[in-house]
Amino acid sequence: MESLSPAQAREHIEMVDRILTRSERSLRVGGEFFLVWGLVGTSVTLAFQLIIDGRIPSWALWVLPLFFAAAILFSVLRGRQLGKCSEGLPLIQREFFAVLWISLGVAFFADAFGFHIFTTWASSAVWNIAAAIVLFFIAVHGNRRALVCGIIVLVSVAAANFLPTITGYVLAAGMLFGYAGFGLISLTSRD
Description:
By secondary structure, this protein is an all-alpha fold. Helices cover 74% and strands 0% of the residues. Helix 2 (31-52) runs antiparallel to helix 3 (63-82) and helix 5 (120-139) packs parallel to helix 7.
């Protein structure tokens, strides 16, 4: 291998600098999706805790499929409105969506096919853990708010473990203040 002259090395460094300057390094997270899905997750967990506590009748669960349908419809319409396709996205955005779909896909699989293992509150905790993974991925890309919100979601799982009479309330609070909270912060922040 030939050694570079100082002029050639400087030229290579300038070229790399131009490439990095033009590349997309910021991770756009879509705060509205976090807000909507955080509220859906909160409502599901909260509804089950309220039924267990006898505060609402079990037939009130019929409203949850409507929340899911509304969130799915919102996500589809908003996603189309944003007009993003995976080929045109920067690498960091594609990685974010991959982590998001992997985390949520694994959580869905655990809930749908592991319901004898992940019973009652374990099912809700799986979703909180998936939410924390997504937030921590965003955090490692320099978003301190995502770090704080991810910690909130994760701490809610630990706290819920030691508060058996209010487990659902604690898990719901983690999803509300962590996941939906991150969405709200993302939508209202100036940077």
